[in-house]
Amino acid sequence: MGKLYLIPTTLGEMNPEDVLPHTIKRTIDFIDHYIVENEKTARRFIKSVHPEKKQPELHLFVLNKHTDVSEHHEFIKPLLEGKNMGLMSEAGCPGVADPGAVIVKLAHDKGIQVVPLVGPSSILLAMMASGMNGQSFAFNGYLPIDKSEKKTALKNLEKLSFDKNQSQLFIETPYRNNKFLEDLLQILQPNTLLCVACDITLPTEFIKTQSVNQWKKNKADLHNRPCIFIIHKTH
């Protein structure tokens, strides 16, 4: 059987050589079958990393929230036929906060070797730069949109961070970031630490950790910028 290679991509428009090891290009060189989140951006990424790769020879299967579960088995047929495949996220590491995890699970079920490759993870990079507890942290994805439910969720995460000394990470749809920051500043305790990490690895990178009270005095414009938010309630 073939091997499933988990291929990280960049976190935005930038030179891949700045954040990706040569292993990525070497892997793309011998793989023609890919499972990707978006075909257009995947092809653009492959071209940026390996311009010599012949695009017409690529076979791409699109995996996103609209993909039916019945298609997953069809996607991995090349693996079962002995061909290597690559799995790519829209940005960052596949399988982490990404729909690709279902393919990785299926590969394990079928006895297919899974090979994770090194690349940027916005979650880990934000955690590294936050100054918060890297010994214990949890990624919670998106919080509820409903304001009442969001308030309850944030209060619970704030209490959890205090009780377990655990940093709590989450994300929001980029165009809602500024409104989300306002909600955080209204709901969280004044002395709760909040880290905002956006445009990670890009020239416009912005990472800052300070108390909610300090954020109220000095806000940032986060509109349409991919962000990781981290909170930690201290004594």
TrEMBL record:
For this protein, the record's SUPFAM superfamilies field holds: Tetrapyrrole methylase
Indicate yes or no for the key word RNA-binding: no
Top-level taxon of the source organism:
Bacteria
Chloroplast: present as a keyword of the record? no
Biological processes, Gene Ontology terms: methylation
Q: What keywords appear on the UniProt entry? A: Methyltransferase, Transferase
Task: Fetch the Gene3D superfamilies from UniProt.
Answer: Cobalt-precorrin-4 Transmethylase, Domain 1, Methyltransferase, Cobalt-precorrin-4 Transmethylase, Domain 2
GO terms of molecular function: methyltransferase activity
- Give the InterPro entries listed for this entry: 4pyrrol_Methylase_sf, 4pyrrole_Mease_sub1, 4pyrrole_Mease_sub2, rRNA_ssu_MeTfrase_I
Q: Which PANTHER family match?
A: RIBOSOMAL RNA SMALL SUBUNIT METHYLTRANSFERASE I, SAM-DEPENDENT METHYLTRANSFERASE
What is the protein name stated in its UniProt record? Methyltransferase
Q: Please name the source species.
A: Flavobacterium saliperosum S13
